[in-house]
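User: quick one
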Amino acid sequence: AQSVAQPEDQVNVAEGNPLTVKCTYSVSGNPYLFWYVQYPNRGLQFLLKYITGDNLVKGSYGFEAEFNKSQTSFHLKKPSALVSDSALYFCAVRDGTGGFKTIFGAGTRLFVKA
Amino acid sequence: GAVVSQHPSWVICKSGTSVKIECRSLDFQATTMFWYRQFPKQSLMLMATSNEGSKATYEQGVEKDKFLINHASLTLSTLTVTSAHPEDSSFYICSATSRGRNYNGVEQFFGPGTRLTVL
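Assistant: Done. Structure below.
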């Protein structure tokens, strides 16, 4: 069975500093990995995904994520955080069998201080 | 393109009544739709997967008779919470996919969610 772990409930970072939001996964076969962001009382917005190819994936709003197969991780990063990046971030995984069933991590709240 | 809407955005109902939530794909045909439930400060829990024209597949622990899902067309899926109780209060989010197609690399699109409060 596939699963996703986000070990941090909250990440605090000062504006302008780099940020990292951690994610590890477990899936049989090749994983499809995703990051989504959620603002209060809103649905999810897609940030980026990894399916195959380069381990470093670039996405929306300056975010990027690095796929590390040996560590089964897919950490979200941004070189310089903005206050407007403050939100709830979800890592998600899908197995590579062709179905669309996606499992989400518990979420990490990012708080960027001005 | 690829917008998913939900209606209503919020609803308050009395215990024992039924509530219907609609999920529509506005500019694409959704071959598969998913319903998620999100509790405060928690993640999304997949409730069920519905394919157009067939019965929904429910996740373990989700009561199919309580959460009725209908995917009657390629643009509409409905979730009906029957005989609602306060513990059904939650944020319900749908998502839609179009098999074999993506929009700027995005394959799964989420609605804005519906907040249900059962008194």
